[in-house]
């Protein structure tokens, strides 16, 4: 980051300081004081268990794709429902609620989102939120768990196939995570995570169509089970990879995250990434509300029903000022 960009970053902190301070003790705000260690990088240590499991999962998903024509309409509809529930467990839950505290959720809603998060099987909420805060605080550096400057494959899935860089581990241990530890739903899910994943990611998607409308166990396991899970994983990974590489940067041209509508569609609203990294505490993660953003529509519905409240938003004045000062002058993604 250049000296000018650093000054811009500090100016932004001052400009939105009130909202930022209310959000999360700036644990998800970029730290421009961090510098990577000089000298050779530590050797990559492959995690063969993860490599084998990812390979088997995607082979199973490809087989599931061949079974889609033989699946009943009800099974395909159930697959879409499972996809949406698991996606919301990540986007509205682990991401916008627990990582960024961009709104407040009632106990029943937190339980629903925790169940959806277990169905998504992307690490428990505590670990997911911790790593995501590290990602924002040290974006595109050695301390970023899925540093996109190491290439598309690493940012997409490769980071799960190797041991974390020592700086990722070190910085993650230093984060203030008392809010997560104080949330009984988060800690209950963490204690029972493995069992919840077995039940919610695999058994429930498979057994519901088999029991209620007579779908074969094979189709039920490979379509709403493995295929749905693999597609959901890749949709989430595209936020880390594609949305950090391809797209425009109307809000801050000095950072890599981009506005990518295709990623926004597949990840139900998480592809407006230049905006999100510029204003991480905004519950909508986008300037454009519910447009290509089912997660924002869901949170709005929960607020209307009284199950959520206090969604944080950036004012139009601050957005326009930021666009004028640090945007690249490209057309807005919305």
TrEMBL record:
Main subcellular location of this protein, as a coarse class: endoplasmic reticulum
Coiled-coil region: none
Needed co-factor(s): Fe(2+)
PROSITE patterns from the UniProt entry: FATTY_ACID_DESATUR_1
Any one GO molecular-function label of the UniProt entry: stearoyl-CoA 9-desaturase activity
GO CC annotations on file: endoplasmic reticulum membrane
Family: Belongs to the fatty acid desaturase type 1 family.
Keywords tagged on the record: Endoplasmic reticulum, Fatty acid biosynthesis, Fatty acid metabolism, Iron, Lipid biosynthesis, Lipid metabolism, Membrane, Metal-binding, Oxidoreductase, Transmembrane, Transmembrane helix
Gene responsible for this protein: scdb
Pfam family, one: FA_desaturase
Record domain Fatty acid desaturase: where: 78-280
Name of this chain's protein: stearoyl-CoA 9-desaturase
Transmembrane segments: 46-65, 71-94, 193-213, 219-239
Top-rank EC class of the record's enzyme: oxidoreductase
PANTHER family hit by this protein: ACYL-COA DESATURASE, STEAROYL-COA DESATURASE
Matches recorded under InterPro entries: Acyl-CoA_DS, FA_desaturase_dom, FADS-1_CS
Location(s) in or outside the cell: Endoplasmic reticulum membrane
Topology in membrane: Multi-pass membrane protein
Swiss-Prot/TrEMBL GO biological process terms: monounsaturated fatty acid biosynthetic process; response to fatty acid; unsaturated fatty acid biosynthetic process
Source organism, top-level taxon: Eukaryota
Statement: the UniProt record of this protein carries the keyword Amino-acid biosynthesis: no
Catalysis performed (reactions): octadecanoyl-CoA + 2 Fe(II)-[cytochrome b5] + O2 + 2 H(+) = (9Z)-octadecenoyl-CoA + 2 Fe(III)-[cytochrome b5] + 2 H2O
UniProt source species: Cottoperca gobio (Frogmouth)
Annotated spans, Disordered: 1-22
